[in-house]
């Protein structure tokens, strides 16, 4: 066992001595060649401009982050608002796109319109009745169209009035 241990130590020393005796001429030459084209200069740091102070003087200009319509509404409240306590009529359940005007009737001097709901039910409406989901009140009825005044909320939760026209559908 002792002989094997001594042989191992001798082999390690031989291996280490083989690495120490070599010349590094090719490595030295590579280092010299690669450093020939280099310059030893670094660009100077750019000069910093001094900080310029800014005085905010736009207190009288309206803020771009606040809606001007909101400010106008606060100054002049038009009072336009739907009657939310009123009992809803049958045709207010449906969006206007799903309703069809299929005809009109006239009794004495009053013109009625015939409206077909999505369930294929006919409804007779007159001026003052409500239709659609945007509080649409019938303002005028002719033989071929209905004019509605709807009260809708805009982007700033303010009520505005919109006029819509509901045309007679062609039956083919």
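^ structure tokens above, recovered residues below v
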């Amino acid at each position: 066992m002792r002989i094997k241990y001594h042989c191992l130590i001798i082999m390690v020393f031989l291996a280490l001595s083989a690495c120490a005796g070599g010349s590094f001429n090719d490595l030295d030459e590579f280092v010299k060649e690669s450093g020939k084209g280099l310059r030893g200069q670094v660009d100077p740091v750019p000069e910093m401009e001094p900080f310029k102070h800014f005085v905010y003087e736009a207190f009288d200009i309206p803020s771009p982050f606040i809606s001007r319509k909101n400010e106008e509404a606060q100054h002049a409240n038009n009072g336009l608002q739907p009657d939310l306590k009123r009992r809803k009529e049958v045709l207010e359940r449906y969006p206007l796109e799903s309703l069809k005007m299929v005809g009109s009737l006239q009794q004495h001097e009053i013109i009625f319109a015939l409206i077909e709901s999505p369930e294929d039910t006919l409804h007779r409406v007159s001026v003052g009745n409500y239709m659609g989901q945007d509080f649409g009140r019938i303002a005028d009825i002719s033989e071929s169209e209905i004019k509605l005044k709807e009260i809708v909320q805009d982007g700033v939760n303010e009520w505005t009035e919109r006029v819509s026209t509901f045309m007679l559908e062609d039956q083919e």
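The two ends are 112 Å apart (CA to CA).
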